[in-house]
Write a structure and sequence with these properties.
By secondary structure, this protein is an alpha+beta fold. The chain is 21% helix and 38% strand. It is globular, with a radius of gyration of 16 Å.
Length: 141
Amino acid sequence: MPDIPASHRDLLQSTPIVILATEGADGYPQVTATWFLVDEDGTVKLSLNTARQKTKNLQRNPEATLFFVDPANLYRTLEIRARATVEPDPDYDFADRFAAKYGGADLRAMDQPGEERVVVSFTPVKVNTFGEGPGAAAATA
């Protein structure tokens, strides 16, 4: 499993959203900006509703790409190509931790009757970076 280089790990904390690309049923990419949480073990995770297209796409084909853009330098990016694992979150245990990052959003209120919450965990397969990390210019000046 490839590691995220130290030069770009800060993006997992400083970026408020991630761009998620999945493969749609028609074979074309489906791209969505979404909230994310980095778990204690460093795994990027999402809390999704089973009615969402991205959830259906990941259940059908678990290969996805996560794309982070540095809000302070739009030319600095982190791309994580990954395999997703989708697991039930019936008691909203992860969803509540996830929502706390975003001001305590009530994810239960967003779900309709019959819909369920899942935790999507991403295992990196390939990591690509672009641009230099913070302090790189000062180190070379």
